[in-house]
Amino acid sequence: MTVMWLILLLSTHWIQCCTAVSEFYSSTDHMIQLIDIQKEFAQSFSDYVAALESQVDLLKRAVSVLGHNFDDTSKDKEKFISNPLSAYQLVRKLNRVWTTTRDIIEEKRLTGTLKKLRSSAEKLPGADDVDGVVLGLLRLQEMYRLDPRNISAFCEMKNNVTLDPDETFHIAMVSYQNEKLEFALLWMQETLRKLSVGEKAIVSKEEVQDQLALFSCQLASTQDPLHVRDLLACYANVIESMKTWDWTSKAINPFDSQPMENKYEALCTGKQKPQMKRKLVCRYRTSNQMMYAPFKEEEEWHQPMVWRYHDFLSDREIDVIKRLARPKLSRAKVIDPVTGKKFSTAFRVSKSAWLSEDEDPLIAQINQRIADVTGLDLQTAEELQVANYGIGGQYEPHYDSKHSNDSDFQFRGDRIATLLIYMSDVDVGGATVFPTTGAALLPKRGTAVLWFNLLENGNQDNRTLHASCPVFVGNKWVANKWIRTGGQEFRRKCSTVQSE
Question: Which tens digit of pLDDT belongs to each residue from 303-344?
């Protein structure tokens, strides 16, 4: 009864306190904060339950007081009330009981703990975050061609994490709601397998079989509408076939027989190996403007040229940049820096923050270092952008070159070069790939990579189409500097040849 009362009390406040959209799923660093948020909410919840239990005890004592020594009042009410001591006791007890219980009933005594609980609840992830994490999982599943049992085995090996049938059922339903029938079918099959081998769950086996038959027939009708005309007959056939399914056999991965759709996927999954046309070169490089030790430069790719600079940032500098960016990332939305519009999570899943030189002297030092290594003028360059990728975080193939139809382009020019700094290692996934040329750059903490987005004639270099592969395991942090053409007239030679 106490639990039911607690649920009813909380439900009157829940809609008001949990409506904020956090987008936790779009930043792994933001997701990490959920561990502390969970502890804070659990403590607030515990305090509130304790306060409720205390109030229940008071109410029970009040009921006991109301019944104490009044058993004979109904026999002769006039005689009872005419006794001044009895009258005094009755009036006093009724007054005290109501004074005590009124604050409880009106929740005045719970105001402090309830306010604290609601404050903690405002930080909790919303339904969009739950769906966002599921969609991130599906991106990984699609990119790396994994069925649910592969994913479960991998994650169990890494962190000893397993999903119960209710959780796999939820993933299946979110997949279905987002029109991803193939994944909905796979996760529903996994749910039925778990139930069939005896795992406990709230969802019933009959409900799972019903949904599985529905998904199977809908998928079959979309793939071969002429063959599947009678959905009811299809449904009955699938239900009947489930009786003979062998859940102990090795699962068949339906993605194994599907070819890779494009070079982006092939590079991310390792199906296509980068192939260099000539031997790479490493050197120490200095310039007249440099005030630091020589840069450790490596020619990582040709056509287009991509240089990697080792030990570009120190661990201390990385920590400072992350500290400056975190408050901004927690408030950030997933915005396209080119268009300024909200990204579709299918295209990019990360959060970004921009750091100016006014925020810390270190930013000015890094900008000077970038100017030294590139030999370019940074007067028209954009601020240092810091990004943290989320669950299945990716950035699909795109060009860094800006569109020429805005005032910003007219003032500062196009993005002539990109310098990308890796501020973390990534366990699995997260490479920067160039689908047109087959280049694949692995994240290495403290290194920076540089390429020119424009040819020497000013046109876009189509070979610089690039993407960020989904992060499977790890926390990917990057910072980048987009350098504009304004001010580079005497810094980079120009050409009138169309191919240069």
Answer: 889 999 999 999 999 999 999 999 888 776 654 444 444 544
Kindly indicate the confidence band of residue 194, based on its pLDDT and cuts at 50, 70 and 90. Answer: very high
> Do 481 and 367 form a contact (C-beta atoms < 8 A)?
yes
Residues paired with 110 in a beta bridge: none
- Rounded distance between C-alpha atoms, residue 464 and residue 397, angstroms: 10
- Site of tokens 């809609």: 15
Span 355-369, mean pLDDT? 96
Strand locations in 209-258 (E)? none
Establish how many alpha carbons lie within 13 A of residue 34's alpha carbon, considering only the half-sphere containing its beta carbon. Answer: 15
For the segment 451-475, the average pLDDT, to the nearest whole number, is: 92
pLDDT higher for 111 or 217? 217
48-101 per-position pLDDT tens digit: 888 888 888 887 887 777 666 555 555 677 676 666 666 666 676 666 666 767
DSSP per residue over 299-353, as a string? Answer: EEETTTTEEEEET-S-HHHHHHHHHHHHHHHHH---B-TTT-SBPPTTTB-EEEE
Please, which residues have CB within 8 angstroms of residue 110's CB and are 6 or more apart in sequence?
48, 51, 52, 55, 104
What sign does the dihedral 403-407-412-418 (CA atoms) show?
Answer: negative
- Cα–Cα distances in Å, from 472 out to 15, 158, 400, 443, 446? 34, 12, 24, 13, 21
Please check whether residue 255 is in contact with residue 266, taking contact to mean a CB–CB distance below 8 angstroms.
Answer: no
Q: Which residue do the tokens 């599947």 mark?
A: 228
Contacts of 25 (CB under 8 A, 6+ apart): 31, 125, 129, 132, 133, 135, 136, 349, 390, 391
Q: What is the DSSP letter of 425?
A: -
Query: Cα dist. 331→121, 135, 279, 352, 358 in Å?
Result: 17, 21, 45, 10, 20
What six digits make up the tokens of 480?
Answer: 């980048």
Q: Which residue in 106, 182, 127, 130 sits closest to 25, CA to CA?
A: 130
